Amino acid sequence: MKKILFLLLCFYSFQIFAQIKPVLPLPSQKQLKWQELEYYGFVHFNMNTFTNVEWGEGKESPQQFNPKQLDCEQWVKIAKSAGMKGLILTVKHHDGFTLYPSKFTDHNISKSPWKNGKGDVLMDLSKACKKYGILLGVYLSPWDRFHPAYGTEAYNQVYVNMQKEILQNYGSIFEFWYDGANGEGPNGKKQIYDWPLFNGTVEKLMPNAIQFSDSGPDIRWVGNEKGFAYDETWSPINKNEIYPGFPKFDNYKNGQINGSHWVPVEVDVSIRPGWYYHPEQDNKVKTPDSLMKIYVASVGRNGNLLLNIPVDNRGLIHPNDSTALLQFAELRKKSLKNLINSTNTQIDVSSLESNYSKNNLIDLNKKTFWAAKSNDSTPSTTLNFKNVILANSLVIQEPIFLGQRIAEFEVILENEKGEKETIKAKTVGNKRILTFNERLLKSVKIVFLKSKAQVLISNIELYRIISKRNESLFQ
């Protein structure tokens, strides 16, 4: 009986969605799951923390690594309170020093005085993440300025062996992060990285892990380290034309409307000017208002936000950083509230595919959506409000499990006096947050000017995003 009910449900679901043709490429289930995270943290903490540099040379003594107050639970509790869904740790940076006792390099934590050489930062963080219920990710730089095998074919297997140590001994890893940097090793040679081997190792040992690099295979770099994606940000990209460290990556940073593979963007930025902790930057931590603008320009432009926290040389998150993170969380809690409700809103659409109600636009369910007729060349939807709404941000989402479609749209805002302003924008994707000068809105009309296929919209919201002073952040 259960099998019959299941088959009937599948048939019913197929009938509902049979009219809508997906647009290739499509995201995998793990890419969809990753996109839902939206915001998580980077932890740059390693030998560089103690030498006060950004890129070490591999000549540093392990005796320099000694975080006398290290507390991974402090990191995780702050990250969770800040709303982060996970933490990615720099397990090995370019200098080659590993934060766990690797058997495949002499430049590792077992040679340090911390815990008399018995410590393991990655294990401590793994346990803390599990205890407090957030995800663990790892950064393992392929570049190694210490290892004597770097620059030879043997090094590729050294790197794979390190991958295996991590993936087999530290629990579930949600993201594996590759840096594209490729400089000389101690012998003056550069390495030819075996990316298929590296990617295949993760895929075999941790198939649900997302892999990051310039070209993926699962998610890609946004093309800058300033904290923003672009007005035009496509998840599809011609992945086979690029590789990590690709010198002309700027030509691919927006993705391509007809890209061959689904490789969405991750936006990485540090809360300080540097990625590693430098005491002279204690008063240069980004403000909660700046972090909110970064959130809007990253998550709000079809990306995920990876915000870096430089843990200090005590082994703790500095109070200036934690204060900014927690105040940023408060701003999101106050600001990211949908102001549209069905009793106050009349929805008009230019066309409607049967079974895809216009009411799906405001039901806050990303799996349901409004579908315009396939022959509607410039479909539109208008939200008219019985009572005006004070807002400064519009949210639009596509049902990306059926592909990314919108290439250009415009929004016509009408205030309580009947005055109108038109704002034009490019892509939508998973989530687009379009900001404007705050006003009392009587209506919002969205016209989809260009699309690569039939227009589908799963969600529309309005926000009033505020500053730390409890004022409009966009005015």
Automatic annotation (TrEMBL):
Its family remark reads:
Belongs to the glycosyl hydrolase 29 family.
- Provide GO CC annotations from the record: lysosome
**Key words, A-Z:** Glycosidase, Hydrolase, Signal
Taken from the record, one Pfam family name reads F5_F8_type_C
- InterPro entries of this UniProt entry? FA58C (IPR000421), FUC_metazoa-typ (IPR016286), Galactose-bd-like_sf (IPR008979), GH (IPR017853), Glyco_hydro_29 (IPR000933), Glyco_hydro_29_N (IPR057739)
Domain Glycoside hydrolase family 29 N-terminal as annotated: residue spans: 59-330
Look at the named UniProt entry and state the broad enzyme category this protein falls under.
Answer: hydrolase
- Purpose of the protein: Alpha-L-fucosidase is responsible for hydrolyzing the alpha-1,6-linked fucose joined to the reducing-end N-acetylglucosamine of the carbohydrate moieties of glycoproteins.
Keyword hit for Signal: yes
Signal sequence annotation: 1-18
Q: Which GO terms describe its biological process?
A: fucose metabolic process; glycoside catabolic process
All copies of the F5/8 type C domain together span 346-450
Q: What is this protein called?
A: alpha-L-fucosidase
- What Enzyme Commission number(s) apply to this enzyme? 3.2.1.51
SMART domains given in the database record: Alpha_L_fucos (SM00812)
Gene Ontology molecular functions:
alpha-L-fucosidase activity
